[in-house]
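stage 2 :: seqdesign
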């Protein structure tokens, strides 16, 4: 068991003049203050990667910039799963006694710090270098292939998955700092510009600037009582050409092990933080994780079951689809929001009861999976 003692999050969107280190620093300062700690109390550091600052030693570059002298520093790369992968690593380092207070931080000026074409081409490299990348697909194209097959097999259509874009936008409208806040309808999502059919522009998360951070500690440092009680990973493939079953990508395997550690079941969840790079990502993960029956996740969204005031709130900050996606920090924002919900600090979007939360991140094209179970302590 470990404690998440403080969190920090910048606004997402355009932040001209702020680079990777600036955005990381802002979020880190917030998280340390929220934990009731000072920089000298931080003896561990884990950070993600940055496509706008692709330094081979980003952890120590940030430590020097921010004024830390950690006993442990590490940067990792797991695509979209990096955020929760860092949380799992921090949790295990604290449990092992390696560190007392470890700062987990990520940030990137992905929107203003590089061109759209550069971003697209960088992310497209998750494809197989011989069998996929030379054919020219971009990230949405990989997900579109899975979306078309999944929708065919389980009887859902574009209007169904559009429910998640509408829901995330509704939540983002209640969250200061969100990148996209204008209300949208299912009809508008379906009519929006095609990117890689069946995915349209409103089915895709925006590219953002932003930063997020949190502190994981060996003991409780203040009034914020949130514990990590389960964490696990699964890696069944890297490239979609090697994915044998679109209904079994590894998400359920990771969640099952995390729940076993926590002594809990999916039905015990009172809050969900699920990676949502595309509407189809959210749909597929909710169903593979066992939150919804196959083909039924959009219907549950339509019924309001995943709304902030519903029985199983989901990504109440707006998720990647609307709060925004700044790379590794995008997933960390899910954890920050979970912490705010579990400590009663979510304001007008506060859920009724958040005693146990399930978090799940996906990297690549459903390639790497990390599940976390968080518990609200009395």
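stage 2 :: out
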């Amino acid at each position: 068991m470990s404690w998440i003692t403080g969190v920090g999050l910048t606004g997402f969107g355009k932040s001209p003049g702020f680079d990777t280190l600036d955005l990381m620093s802002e979020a880190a300062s917030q998280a340390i203050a929220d934990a009731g700690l000072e920089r000298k109390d931080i003896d561990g550091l884990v950070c993600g990667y940055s496509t706008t600052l692709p330094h081979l030693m980003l952890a120590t570059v940030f430590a020097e910039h921010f004024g830390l002298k950690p006993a442990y520093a590490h940067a990792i790369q797991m695509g979209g799963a990096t955020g929760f992968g860092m949380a799992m690593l921090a949790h295990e380092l604290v449990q092992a006694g390696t560190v007392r207070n470890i700062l987990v931080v990520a940030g990137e000026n992905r929107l203003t710090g590089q061109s759209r074409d550069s971003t697209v081409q960088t992310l497209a490299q998750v494809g197989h270098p011989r069998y996929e990348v030379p054919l020219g697909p971009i990230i949405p194209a990989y997900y579109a292939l899975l979306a078309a097959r999944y929708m065919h097999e389980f009887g859902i259509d574009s209007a169904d998955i559009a429910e998640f874009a509408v829901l995330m936008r509704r939540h983002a409208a209640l969250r200061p700092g969100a990148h996209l806040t204008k209300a949208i309808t299912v009809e508008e999502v379906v009519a929006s510009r095609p990117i890689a059919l069946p995915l349209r522009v409103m089915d895709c998360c925006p590219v953002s600037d932003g930063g997020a951070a949190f502190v994981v500690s060996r003991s409780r440092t203040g009034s914020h009582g949130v514990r990590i009680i389960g964490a696990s990973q699964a890696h069944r493939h890297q490239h979609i050409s090697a994915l044998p079953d679109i209904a079994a990508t590894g998400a359920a395997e990771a969640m099952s092990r995390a729940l076993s550690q926590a002594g809990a079941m999916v039905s015990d969840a009172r809050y969900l933080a699920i990676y949502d790079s595309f509407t189809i990502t959210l749909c597929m993960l909710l169903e593979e994780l066992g939150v919804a029956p196959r083909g039924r996740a959009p219907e549950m969204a339509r019924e309001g079951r995943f709304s902030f005031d519903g029985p199983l709130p989901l990504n109440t900050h707006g998720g990647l689809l609307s709060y925004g996606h700044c790379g590794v920090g995008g997933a960390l924002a899910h954890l920050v929001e979970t912490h705010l919900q579990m400590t009663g600090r979510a304001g007008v979007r506060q859920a009724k009861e958040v005693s146990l939360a399930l978090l799940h991140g996906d990297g690549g094209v459903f390639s790497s999976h990390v599940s976390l179970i968080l518990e609200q302590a009395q």
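stage 3 :: structure notes
- The chain has a mean pLDDT of 96.
- Residues 5 and 221 are 6 Å apart (CA to CA).
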